[in-house]
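ping. complex inputs:
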Amino acid sequence: MEEWIEQLRNPVNTLERLAEFINVTAEEKKAIETLNTKWGTSPYFASLMDRDDPKCPIRRQVLPSLQETVNKYGIENYLIWKENRDTEEVRPDSIARQYHDRVAFTVTDVCVNYCRHCFRNELVVNRDLKLRMDVDEGLEWIREHKEIRDVLVTGGDPFVLSDQKIDYIIKKLREIPHLQMIRFGTRSPIVLPHRITPGLKKILSPYHKIPIWVNTQCNHPNEITEKTAQAVFDLLTCGINVGNQAVLLKGINDDPETFRELHQKLLRVRIRPYYLFYCEPAPGIDHFRTTVEKGAELIRDSIRGHTTGLAQPMYVIATNIGKIPLMPDYYIKGKNEKEYTLVNYKGETTKWPNMPE
Ligand SMILES: *Cc1c(COP(=O)(O)O)cnc(C)c1O
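pong. complex structure:
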């Protein structure tokens, strides 16, 4: 049996299994025993957890917490609002739409790791929201909507699907004449790098004029291993660019040192930072959320100018009306008819001529 399938068939999702990897605290035990929530991860990702530190950034993304019962600032029925599911336009459940030319296409609600900070937790983790994930129905809708040029295949994690199913989705999408690109959102390079098998590579690799892009999610430098580096390299050899969509998480990556190390380490394994997301107000994840300004401050204080521009993600809030960039805005200190006063990352200023229209 392929190792990725073995990993999926033996998830770490019971207290007994968990105790093989970490010293479970009384609080973690209570959360696991009392919360009615789906949790669990691959043995591989579990092995990256710190055995003794309950604040371990990986542990906190894997294990349920009693703090999930607190919901002071989260929005009830969040996904219905966020994904514009309560609108006139008739769409299959699998299609989430915020833009004219692109959609998110949910093909599964299964994940490798049930991230505690998931913004789709009503669907994927706590599972109160039931959606019909019918792939053919979604494909049909995309075929009928000629304005869609870009499909973002998501979940759940689409790479938990079999090679055959992934092959089918790609083939069917590439038959749609108005499609120009396919994207997969998958955490597999981070939580199950074994998934990038020779079989999957064969499906992904032949040259085709409709490119495939992959965006993964890595939130802390400890999540990056040699196995991830190899998986990303393998994807690149198939002609697939790999980007990262990090989530800003309180106590996990919201300090300048960790934040810079994360983005530098991503580049070292050939992953290009794409987005930094503000942690969304889904119910029960208040404890992961920082102030809105925090992401821009981190980019200002630890990325821009401090390290290569390639390491810089775009900081966005993903709202019901699309993603809204919130980048740091200190650069233009002043402006008159003659010139701009610009400031760099060290606080030094320079002058730049102002050219009239
Ligand atoms: C994030 C998202 C997209 C893709 O946005 P990009 O900025 O193109 O990466 C498309 N549709 C929905 C519903 C999304 O949430």
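The pocket of pyridoxal-5'-phosphate is lined by residues 96-99, 102-104, 152, 318, 323 (CB under 6 Å).
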